[in-house]
Each structure stands twice: as structure tokens, then as C-alpha cells.
Description:
Blueprint: H1 3-26, E1 31-37, H2 46-60, E2 65-70, H3 81-86, E3 92-95, H4 119-128, H5 131-141, E4 144-151, E5 158-160, E6 174-176, H6 179-187, E7 191-193, H7 200-206, E8 211-212, H8 217-223, E9 231-234, E10 243-249, H9 250-255, H10 258-294, E11 297-300, H11 303-321, H12 325-360
Parallel strand pairs: 1-2, 1-3, 6-7, 6-8, 9-11
Antiparallel strand pairs: 3-10, 4-10, 5-9
Calcium ion is lined by residues 155, 213-215, 239.
Amino acid sequence: xxxxxxxxxxxxxxxxxxxxxxxxxxxxxxxxxxxxxxxxxxxxxxxxxxxxxxxxxxxxxxxxxxxxxxxxxxxxxxxxxxxxxxxxxxxxxxxxxxxxxxxxxxxxxxxxxxxxxxxxxxxxxxxxxxxxxxxxxxxxxxxxxxxxxxxxxxxxxxxxxxxxxxxxxxxxxxxxxxxxxxxxxxxxxxxxxxxxxxxxxxxxxxxxxxxxxxxxxxxxxxxxxxxxxxxxxxxxxxxxxxxxxxxxxxxxxxxxxxxxxxxxxxxxxxxxxxxxxxxxxxxxxxxxxxxxxxxxxxxxxxxxxxxxxxxxxxxxxxxxxxxxxxxxxxxxxxxxxxxxxxxxxxxxxxxxxxxxxxxxxx
Length: 362
Ligand code: CA
């Protein structure tokens, strides 16, 4: 080796040495994160979105935050995700917070409620309408800290094995429909059940349930729900923009540095956006395929059925808000957002899309 190379090597060694000496001052501990989920592994949109978030958080930190992801059933069952994280056995979950409405009805508002908010509306409420503060207060009561981490957009009304021409047609139906939407169906004489996504198909095929909602064309096509029920109703009153949650153990969250909190928030906000984009990109094509290839009968709930949904929703809301002071404050805040943000949506998104489609004949 020439002398010049030796000198270069020595300089490089000195630089590396300097880095090594300086490093402890800025070095941060590797953070091991176990993340559980309410979704089956690789389930399109919901499961893949949660997995994409887990990978993103690891990648954004060059593996310093090491997220080990467990789909539903791989570590705990779908509906045990909450307790697993609240207890500190795991640090994060990805799921739909309305699954926890039995613990407190306030949770339903942080996924979707009947006659609730669309994607853009709920984002406005959470970020600028006091929603995040109330979510923090509710989650704090259970030892959690939650963030928006995905959205399905407006969901379909569901799959039925007969036409629904009046609310009488709902009587006696055993339907998979979680959240406060299930309570609305109960008011109308149906029997709502809440079962995880991974078990819907077998229950519908076996006749254990007569009807189900799940998400929308892209997800429902994957689930092959058309094999057991042909009538596919829209729009779903129960989930107009289902927000998915990143739930974190509160002690874990508070142990993070300010910059790590920002990284988690950024990764989660990105998934909130990316998942919605993916659902919007794929639902239209899937709907066309369902009708073309599977003989699915698309139906719109008529005004009479929707009026009945509305009356039943009012009763369900009165019961939910009577639960506690916090439930009432969540409901009041939600109502304000629905009036104010929804009032703007009426003359912006709704009016524009309606006119565009009219002119184009869509
Ligand atoms: Ca749903």
C-alpha cells in the first residue's frame, strides 16, 4: 500500500473514531414494539395497511424502532387486541375502535357512527374540531393513546339474501354489523352480531347469520360474500368513513422522545392518507367486476328505510350519550362537527359531485 493510501486510511480511521466517540451523546436505544391487530394477515386494505404502517415505522427509523407485527390470531384474537395493549403486553394495535363500544360507547365515535362523518369530515373533527383531545381523554381512561391510521371511506350497506324494501324487512334478520350501527339494526328488529372479519364468510355460508356488512366492493369481493347473499345495498348509514386506529399503550407512548413521537405520528398520518387512496382507487373496479362476473344485484336503500335508520339512530345516540359525562361531551363535539363541517361539505363536495355527475350523465 502506498503511503498516500495509508494516510487516507488513517484519516478515515480518525473520522470513524470521532464518530464513535460522539455517538453516545445522540444514540437512542433500539425500541422493540410488538403490534397486534384486529385483521387477518394480508387482508387487502385493512391488514395490508396495518402491515405497511408497521414496516414504515421500522424503515423510517432504519430499524431503530423494530416493529414486530402480529395479525389477528397470531398472538391474540382480533377482539383481544385492546386488552393486550392496554395491559402493556404489547405496545401497539391496529384496529377499529368501535369494537370496544362495550367498554365505553365513546369508542364508537372514533371509528364511525350511524349518520356520522365521511373521511374528510372526520379528519377535520379529529384534527381541528376537538376530536383528538376527546379521544385522548377516553383512551387515557384505559391506559391508551390513539391516533388516526387509515380509513375505508363510505362503506356499503351490506349483503342480504332478500330485498329490503321497508324497515319491516329487517325484522328477525341476524346480521353481522358492529358498533352503534348494530344497535340501530336492533331497534328495527334485527339481531346484530359482532364477529371479526376473518369469521364472516363461514357464518354467512352456514346460515348462522342472514346478512352482513363488511366494508366495500374491494374487500367484500375478496371475502366472496356474494356466494352467500346476492343483494348488495348502498349506501351504508352505519359507517360513512370508518377511521382505523393506531392504539398505543400510554406508558409506552409517554416513554418516547419528542422526535420519536413525531415519527410515529407522521407514519400513522401517512397510513391514514394512503389507505383511503387505495380504497378509492380499487372500489369502483371491484364493484363493476362483482356485477359483471358474479351476478351481484346492486340495490339502493330507499328513503323509507333510510328514514327508519334515522329515527332509530336518534334513539341509539340518546342511550350512548346518557352513559357518562365523557360520552355526552364526545357526542356534543361530534354533533358540532357534523353541523359545521357537514354544512360546508353540502355546498362543496356534495354539490359539486352531484352537478358533475348530472352534466356527464353518470
Ligand atoms: Ca364495516
